[in-house]
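Postdoc handover notes: sequence design on the structure in folder B. Input tokens:
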């Protein structure tokens, strides 16, 4: 999509969907979000605070959303999604078929909307969790949901950016057979060396510029490796040699967060130039380096870099939950499909996991 078409589409979204920048769950800021506070914030007991984690692609399942329709704003969110995306996202989430929901072009918008709808459920059941939230992080496309929750992006414009991102990543995925391999290794596993040998194997097969690299740091000795399919096949076939305990191909269509996504950079960069971005009103942590977003331009740069940079999720969790001995941990809520982020938190920080709750997007029962 050309930059002029992106700009026209964003203007149309602003005209047709003048939604408030924040959902009903987010408190408006006092003054400009970009301005530093004029007074120091009072000390807050971390045990009385909360952190929200937003899942990414791969967490989706048919039936997600069934437990969310009764909550404020959710119906409106799906109606906006239908108009922006051009198809009935709610029906796809509830009824599938699974093979369509799993496609990158559908999955990323679905996980994004379902996650923010789950925030509405959390706000209804436990408004204090929203009021006391001090930090958020999202896994891959979940980072867009975290930024909407923080007030940095509007729902409609972020959804459009996710749509452009997903379509560009799908096109990039179709350029070569590729994928992502989840790996749990022994302490002596050498992931970088394994990737180098896998690329050598690909060159022997005639592949000129093979790609194989760690795409996600999940937890200690837990990685996702992505690249050309021949490289991933080689790793699976030689798992014992590399001290891999378990390997599993992920249900995604391409080698995300590697240089094989380079073709998706310009479409995403173009749309991020056009949409309005504000400084987050709470701490939001970037997948690229695990550090907090500091400005509007920082958000734009990191979201673009994220396409080809590994997701440093383990490092992000350490950054969020690092504290002095004896200091209490905040409550943690995984908002959206699946419990994968809770599982990684348990592997990274068992103390922090003690305050973990999953906000289920399929459970229709009031808690």
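Designed sequence:
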């Amino acid at each position: 999509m050309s930059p002029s078409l992106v700009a026209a589409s964003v203007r149309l979204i602003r005209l047709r969907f003048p939604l408030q920048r924040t959902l009903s769950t987010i408190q408006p800021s006092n003054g400009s979000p970009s301005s530093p506070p004029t007074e120091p914030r009072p000390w807050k007991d971390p045990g009385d605070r909360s952190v929200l984690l937003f899942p990414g692609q791969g967490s989706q399942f048919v039936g997600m959303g069934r437990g969310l329709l009764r909550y404020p704003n959710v119906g409106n969110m799906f109606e906006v999604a239908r108009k922006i995306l051009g198809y009935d996202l709610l029906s796809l989430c509830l009824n599938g078929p699974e093979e369509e929901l799993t496609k990158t072009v559908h999955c990323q918008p679905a996980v994004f909307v379902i996650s923010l709808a789950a925030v509405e459920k959390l706000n209804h059941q436990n408004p204090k969790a929203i009021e006391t939230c001090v930090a958020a992080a999202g896994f891959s496309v979940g980072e867009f949901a975290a930024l909407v929750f923080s007030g940095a992006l509007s729902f409609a414009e972020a959804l459009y950016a996710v749509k452009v991102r997903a379509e560009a990543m799908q096109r990039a995925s179709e350029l070569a057979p590729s994928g992502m391999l989840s790996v749990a290794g022994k302490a002596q596993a050498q992931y970088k060396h394994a990737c180098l040998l896998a690329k050598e194997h690909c060159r022997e097969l005639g592949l000129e510029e093979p790609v194989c690299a760690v795409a996600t740091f999940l937890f200690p000795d837990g990685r996702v490796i992505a690249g050309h399919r021949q490289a991933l096949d080689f790793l699976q076939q030689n798992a014992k040699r590399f001290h891999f305990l378990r390997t599993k191909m992920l249900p995604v269509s391409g080698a995300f967060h590697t240089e094989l996504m380079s073709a998706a950079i310009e479409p995403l960069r173009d749309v991020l130039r056009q949409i309005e971005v504000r400084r987050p009103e709470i701490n939001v942590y970037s997948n690229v380096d695990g550090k907090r977003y500091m400005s509007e331009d920082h958000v734009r740069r990191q979201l673009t870099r994220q396409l080809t940079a590994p997701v440093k999720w383990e490092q992000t969790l350490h950054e969020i939950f690092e504290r002095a001995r004896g200091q209490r941990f905040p409550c943690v809520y995984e908002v959206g499909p699946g419990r994968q982020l809770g599982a990684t938190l348990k592997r990274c920080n068992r103390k922090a996991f003690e305050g973990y709750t999953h906000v289920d997007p399929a459970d229709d029962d009031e808690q």
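Context for whoever picks this up: The radius of gyration is 20 Å. Don't rerun without checking with the PI first.
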